[in-house]
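Fold this sequence, please.
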Amino acid sequence: MTAHAELAHYRKTPPSTPSAPTSPTQTSPSTPTTRIDRPRPGDGRLLWRLARDSGTLDLNSAYSYLLWCRDFAGTSAVARDASGRPVGFVSGYLRPESPGTLLVWQIAVDESVRGLGIAGALLDGLSARVAAEHGLRSLETTISPGNLASERLFASYAARHGATLTREVLFAPEEFPDRGYAPEVLHRIGPLHF
């Protein structure tokens, strides 16, 4: 498939509407010893490792994760095991031109605890906190084509919150400085009600 054909396929997808709204607390079971809270600067090195070990995320510099945990802790969340060690995280920020929109930058869960609903709990916990502190009308993220786990995660989030999910290409391959990039498809979920 050529890049242009691939772009045509991902250019716009009609909105999907969930069959019935469900409670934001209805997520997959998670371990009883996992808690969701704000990241701290000391978590940055461990979040960098989680991103590195995910196998799907673009790995940013270790320094950027330290800064993220300091400057964007209010719009990010960490899942901690019983010992307090981070086993998952979601990083995000409120869009400057649309402060009611939370852009989810990265989300990762340690392989040892995948399949326990931690990613969904991270998204639900973070969006509830952001809604309470800042107001939240919509959530956005970008997903590379073929990342089915992320597509399912965000479709499930939209269904749990009774929101519509739309998709369109945000950045085409030719907008990146190097060859080999797939399009970044924007997934927009809203309206959200908390």
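The radius of gyration is 16 Å. Residues 118-134 form the longest helix (17 residues).
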